[in-house]
Amino acid sequence: MQHRxxxxxxxxxxANNSGDGLxxxxxxxxxxxxxxxxxxxxxxxxxxxxxxxxxxxxxxxxLAEHGMARIGGVASVVLPIGNNGRTRELLRLLxxxxxxxxxxxxYLRARNCMEILKLEAGHLLQMRAACLSGRPVVxxxxxxxxxxxxxxxxxxLSGMLGKFAAVFVRDDRSAAFLAHNANTHRAPDMAxxxxxxxxxxxxxxxxxxxxxxxxxxxxxxxAPSWTRRQRERYETATRRLIQLLRETCRISFVVQSTGRGNxxxxxxxxxxIKGDLMPLKELLVADTPDVVVSVRLHGALESVLNGVPSYxxxxxxxxxxxxxxxxxxxxxxxxxxxxxxxxVATILASGAIREFWTKASSGFERIRAGRxxxxxxxxxxxxx
Length: 384
Prior knowledge:
The protein is of the alpha/beta class. The protein folds into two domains: 6-186, Rossmann fold (3-Layer(aba) Sandwich); 195-363, Glycogen Phosphorylase B (Rossmann fold). The protein contains 16 helices and 16 strands. It has helices at 18-35, 67-75, 85-94, 113-133, 151-161, 172-177, 190-197, 199-207, 228-246, 264-270, 280-286, 297-305, 317-326, 340-348, 352-361, 364-383; strands spanning 6-12, 40-45, 57-59, 99-102, 105-108, 137-144, 166-169, 184-186, 215-219, 250-255, 258-259, 262-263, 278-279, 291-294, 310-314, 332-334. α1 crosses α16, α3 (85-94) packs across α4 (113-133) and α4 (113-133) packs parallel to α5. It is globular, with a radius of gyration of 21 Å. The relative contact order is 0.13.
């Protein structure tokens, strides 16, 4: 009987954040393309119940806990790794794997002391377990590197990543952070990699689009850990953008995340937006907009994957890297300092939608090559 490849997929978060759920789905699809449809993928998730479509999901040490149990788990990081019960279970599972894979995303970063503690207690614990397993490890496209000056953490993080078979990064800052690690490779975001595979389907949908813009959907979220001035500027500019587009377009507000600490509904209510709020995934099918304006990167990319151009108001480096890989850099701006009039001019310009797809389609070969590099690295890891 032919051996069935077993992959353990680390660092999944929650499908209640549809961007994180999308990353898991895309990772599983990529793994089955690399190793075959019968591949067993065991998922380690902070919110395992949010992935009912998968039968092989396990709670992540510390991150899957709630309340005092999570606080106790955070405290346990000062103890040897085997002292945590769920970590022992993870180690046992990892030792049964042929390959260990880190899901794509942006979880290996920290901007302040609290985020450093969460990084250490949650994701670095999983990384240490991967190192101890003795199995080959590949990390799918990431944004990596603490943005606050914490040299011991930087050295610890880059040192562990340097032990893996391959680490893919999705932006140039991450590549610079790990430039001394020979196993680091630049590749597009997971959703961008999937763009090429679904190109024919995407372009068929895009061809049916109206030439003009009459319906714009917004995917908004609370501003991240910015200064008070940045948050005020973001909210003022966002309100102005909505007002300008409302003069000629129907506006919809949609939700992409209801997960822990990422409740988009609560944010909409806080800025006075009432009524029912449809998930982005449903709106793209039931009431397809002409354009999506998304503050969440994977809200933007999910829209593109469904044949709807999206202007991304990016609050992190990952957005600029993804849109550069897609070839549509004119459709991304810094969410903390964007010009609403310029965004409107880009979206409503004559022929804007046609030009978006012309530029995006020109990057197919580059994206295809990136996907093949990732698949080759996974297959090489399996053969070691």
